[in-house]
Fold:
Amino acid sequence: MDSSALPPSPPPDDALDARLVERVRRGDAAAFDELVTRHARRAFAVAYRVMGQREDAEDLVQEAFLAALERIDTFQAGRAFAPWLYRILVNRGLNARKARALRVTEEIPATVAASGALPDRAAERSELRGELRSALDALPERQRLVVELFELEGFTSPEIAALLEIPEGTVRWHLHEARKVLRGVLAPFAKEER
Structure:
């Protein structure tokens, strides 16, 4: 499931989702396909933030949609479908992260020719990306996830609160604390740019 191949997510429409869920409950496969189409792009974005790797995110999205289909009868009428789906996705993703073993990767040989930016600029960007990734990874898992969902995926505080089942104030606190840490870690890079 390549996110660039997915159609753009349509605007939220809880009433349409509710009608689709009811059709799915009656065995309408096309209604489930439409739910998947409506939510696949954003589900992939969330999954990628949880898992950190494209292939794992793709697997997680498929697993979450299948779990949602299996549990569709437990979905409470009157609630929004998207937060329910994303909650399934996040729970399964966090469990998978805890359970997965470290992967073995092979280093790219130094003899492979590089393309792209000049080596010095590419090295600076790579160093900054590495520092940012390290800083994000050093955050408590919930803070990292909140920052990535808010800053990189564009979720709002209320959406994140619903997704993680925490109060909005807690989301804002996690954002505040994480930004404070990130500013401290990345401050040397800001000084170098001046």
Notes: The domain at 119-187 is CATH 1.10.10.10 (Arc Repressor Mutant, subunit A).
